[in-house]
Amino acid sequence: QVNSKRGGSPCKEKHVVLLSPVGKIEISGCEMGVHEIKLPKMSELPSGAESSAACEVCEGAEEMPEPLQQCTAWLRAYFCEPATTGSLPVPAFHHALLQRDSFTRQVLWTLLNDVKFGEAVSYKQLADLAGNSRAARAVGGAMRSNPIPIIIPCHRVIRSSGDTGSYGGGQLLKEWLLSYEKLQKEKLA
């Protein structure tokens, strides 16, 4: 149970599991929006960074609130037809971190809106984009607390040196997502 706002009524949280090329992705949310996307921890990469037709809801498909339907549709498109994600609605988010006004929220929204598929940005560049050029470390903190990975693409934030940096889903998943996006972008070019 998640309280929507202080003193607000608790959400009726629903859970969905999406079977994807990178494993089972757990999504939770309510009528108001997506609460969280949990990525699988990977010990080895799936073979190839190809887009794949294997991406379907394997648990929780019944009675899915609209934000979860939009979220699964968006993720399915991301893995199967990445060129179409730009035309899909981004689901509403209903996580406390994305409700209150904060630098973290500003960074996550900036990342969502400004760093496109197949691009990468350094922590410092993202701090600049979010309006505080000296806040590269705070950007790192924002990436660690991102409740909606892949849709809010924290995997696209790398170190200035070009090193990928850390990732909540693990190093292998971050490298796979980056190479997958690069390959898909090259195909579209």
Automatic annotation (TrEMBL):
Q: Which InterPro entries match?
A: MethylDNA_cys_MeTrfase_AS, MethylDNA_cys_MeTrfase_DNA-bd, MethylDNA_cys_MeTrfase_DNAb, MethylG_MeTrfase_N, MGMT_N_sf, WH-like_DNA-bd_sf
Classification of source organism: Eukaryota, Metazoa, Chordata, Craniata, Vertebrata
Cofactor(s) it depends on: Zn(2+)
**Enzyme Commission number(s) of this protein:** 2.1.1.63
Organism (species): Cnemophilus loriae (Loria's bird-of-paradise)
Where the record annotates domain Methylated-DNA-[protein]-cysteine S-methyltransferase DNA binding, the positions are 105-182
Q: What's this protein's name?
A: Methylated-DNA--protein-cysteine methyltransferase
Q: Which reaction does it catalyse?
A: a 4-O-methyl-thymidine in DNA + L-cysteinyl-[protein] = a thymidine in DNA + S-methyl-L-cysteinyl-[protein]; a 6-O-methyl-2'-deoxyguanosine in DNA + L-cysteinyl-[protein] = S-methyl-L-cysteinyl-[protein] + a 2'-deoxyguanosine in DNA
Gene Ontology molecular function: any one: DNA binding
Which family does the similarity line name? Belongs to the MGMT family.
